[in-house]
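Batch manifest, entry 17 of 40.
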Amino acid sequence: MAGDAVYLTREYLLQLQADLQELTTAGRRDIAQKIAEARSHGDLSENADYDAAKHAQELLEIRIAKIQTTLAKAQVIDSKDFPDDKVYILSRVKLLNKKVNKAIEYQMVSPEEADFEQNKLSVTSPLGKALMGKTVGDLLETKVPAGVIQYEILEISK
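Output type: structure tokens
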């Protein structure tokens, strides 16, 4: 992964574009209404509703700016762009946790798409870094808060 590029799947790019559209239209409109309503309550110096609405506006604008920055640097990637005999971004990897003798499957993704609940593992995470470039049958170790865990790569797919 080179330079400042942000590598995204086409699906995630489309999701970000939809999120940005929603935030810049309905999101901003809703915040403006909350601010206007809070202003109507009088003295702004001791108006908790106004302060909360302005804070929500600030958080919304930060989120919008972050999405815009990500989209400006986005480079769409496709799993077909990478070989399937080694672990690369967008690979699906089935691992055997040797410590508990349990298999788990991850999809390797960019940090922006990482989602532990969906088993989307960032290529920049400790385990992600250890997996990159490995092949089926390889053993690897990674440090976690509970110690060192050894994994065996059982399967690589797209």
